[in-house]
Write a structure and sequence with these properties.
The protein is α+β, with helices and mostly antiparallel strands. The protein folds into three domains: 8-235, Thrombin, subunit H (Beta Barrel), CATH 2.40.10; 246-343, PDZ domain (Pdz3 Domain, Roll); 363-492, N-terminal domain of MutM-like DNA repair proteins. It is built from ten helices and 27 strands. It has helices at residues 8-12, 30-40, 83-86, 223-232, 254-259, 315-319, 375-378, 386-393, 439-448, 468-481; strands at 14-16, 43-50, 65-74, 78-81, 89-96, 103-111, 116-120, 144-149, 158-171, 178-184, 196-199, 202-211, 218-222, 246-249, 269-274, 289-293, 296-297, 303-306, 310-313, 326-333, 336-343, 363-365, 368-372, 406-411, 426-431, 453-458, 463-467. The strands form five sheets. Strands 8-9-10-13-12-11 form a six-stranded antiparallel barrel. Strand 11 and strand 12 form a beta hairpin. The longest helix has 14 residues, at 468-481. It starts with 7 loop residues before the first helix and ends in a 19-residue tail after the last helix.
Length: 500
């Protein structure tokens, strides 16, 4: 299947390298010690105080949390680090090795898809004597590298050595995106996140995550993804990585290829569905065979050759481009070849890996708590409900009727909703006969609904009915009883609040 989609299983065995445990210093040689000292002034320890949202009660926060990570000074007087190190931060301080006092830093740009962030320090004395570390080339397997950072347990730089064992499209724990990721056997410990992986004194990757079921199996964000992020922010905004907005299947079945009218030597990937409103919408159709992308022949296992890496999933061709750039496609439809150039967009999935906004979306009406489904929310479950997992993986497709999957996440008890107070994580199908496209549309429906009853039908064909007049009369009491400052998240307040 295409890497456009979320693979829940992969994310469960990967852990982010935020500092929680102790790690010692290891340096393999006198030369390495000298190099570490020379580079040390450009490696940064990042101190973060964060206040993340509570996705189970999205109008409130979980409270202050402290963590540390690492970073590296790059051209432009920026500190490059991982997005998950500084997400939801309310305070960031940074300190170079040998400094006695930390400096205040702020997030300048953050890319959650690629798990990268750039920090800015206003006090330019922070950079005195530091040399920015340049980006190197695409890391290759068997390349020897050194991981620099500040694992928890000390203020001095830790340097560990290892080799690159593979580079492939894989899952980022922070965003659940499938992008290029490099596996390294250098010891990466909590606190290494955001720190540079160097070869020949140049950055070849940024430490990101490790495999919690194996020893010395860590992962770094490789140079092509870093360059993409840095080029993305040239216009002072983060557009992210583009998507085609289509799902594909391999064509390793000879019978399937014959049924599609493919010649013996023709290869490609089978289109199984196309998201409404995506870059591929109106260009690709189910049962098309995508044979080439930007002139690269797609093999029946859905891979293409990629410089300095080998074979990767063909999605790397368009995911390596910027939003707004074009990609050329050659496809087979009903036995005929068709060429198309399409402009790439950043098309959201029905069930994204991570919320797009710092504040989660929610809406409370009559005690019903509505919010969109994300895989980030699913990570709260020890055992994910089958119907939610199905939408996150197999039915993660945008349609004209649905651009978000909306849940009744829970019901806040009140006399107006008696009989439904045990409901949790019900997928909303219709509200008074209309399928809400997204949370904004739901807010409009609820603000404008008329008549005696509010009728909701769920995906599992359950029926919920509230008395509209009673529900609206109880709204202010429900908000007060549960300490909810607004009946909806800030992005939905363009609709008039139903608090009377």
């Amino acid at each position: 299947m295409s890497s456009n989609r979320i693979h829940l299983g992969a994310s469960r065995c990967l852990v982010l390298l935020v500092a929680v445990t102790v790690c010692g210093l290891f340096v393999g040689s006198v030369e390495a010690k000298d190099e570490a000292r020379a580079l040390g002034g450009s490696i940064v320890k990042v101190y973060v105080r964060s206040n993340p949202p509570d996705l189970l009660s999205p109008w409130q926060r979980l409270g202050l949390q402290s963590s540390t990570g690492s970073g590296v000074i790059v051209d432009g007087d920026w500190i490059l680090t991982s997005a998950h190190v500084v997400e939801d931060a309310v305070s960031i301080e940074v300190k170079r090795s040998g400094m006695s006092q930390p400096f205040v830093a702020e997030i300048d740009h953050i890319g959650h898809q690629c798990d990268l962030a750039l920090l800015r320090v206003e006090d330019q004395s922070f950079f005195d004597g530091a040399r920015p570390i340049a980006l190197g080339d695409m890391p290759q397997t068997q390349m020897r590298v050194q991981a620099y950072g500040f694992p928890v347990g000390g203020e001095s730089i830790s340097v560990t050595s290892g080799i690159i064992s593979r580079v492939e499209m894989s899952t980022y724990s922070h965003s659940l995106e499938n992008l290029l990721l490099a596996q390294v056997d250098a010891a990466l410990n909590p606190g290494n996140s955001g720190g540079p992986i160097l070869a020949a004194s140049k950055i070849v990757g940024i430490a990101a995550q490790s495999l919690d079921e194996a020893e010395n199996v860590g992962y770094m964000i490789p140079v092509p993804v870093i360059r993409h992020f840095l080029n993305d922010v040239d216009d002072r905004s983060v557009d992210g990585t583009p998507r085609l907005g289509a799902e594909f299947q391999d064509l390793e079945s000879e019978v399937l290829r014959r049924s599609l009218g493919m010649a013996e030597k023709q290869t490609g990937a089978l289109v199984t569905w196309v998201d409404y409103g995506s870059a591929a919408d109106g260009v690709l159709r189910p049962r098309d065979v995508l044979m080439e992308i930007d002139g690269l022949a797609i093999a029946n296992d859905t891979t293409v050759p990629w410089p300095r890496v080998g074979r990767v999933h063909f999605s790397e061709v368009y995911r390596s481009k910027q939003v707004g750039e074009n990609v050329s496609l050659r496809l087979l439809r009903d036995g005929k070849q068709i060429d198309h150039d399409i402009e790439l967009t950043q098309h959201p999935m029905l069930v994204p890996g991570r919320r797009d906004e710092d504040e989660p979306q929610y809406l409370v009406f009559g005690g019903l708590v509505f919010q969109p489904l994300t895989v980030e929310y699913l990570m709260y479950f020890e055992e994910i409900p089958y119907d939610l997992a199905t939408y996150a993986v197999m039915q993660n497709v945008v349609t004209p009727e649905r651009r978000q999957l909306i849940l009744i996440q829970k019901v806040l008890p009140n006399a107006v909703n008696r009989g439904y107070q045990m409901w949790e994580d019900y997928i909303v199908r219709t509200v008074n006969g209309t399928t809400p496209r997204d949370m904004q549309h739901l807010a409009s429906i609820l603000d404008g609904v008329q008549g005696q009853f509010l009728r909701i039908v769920t995906e599992n064909r359950s029926f919920l009915t509230l008395d509209l007049k009673q529900a609206r009369a109880a709204q202010s009491t429900i908000l007060r009883d549960f300490g909810i400052p607004h009946d909806r998240s800030s992005g939905l307040r363009g609709n008039v609040e139903s608090s009377n």
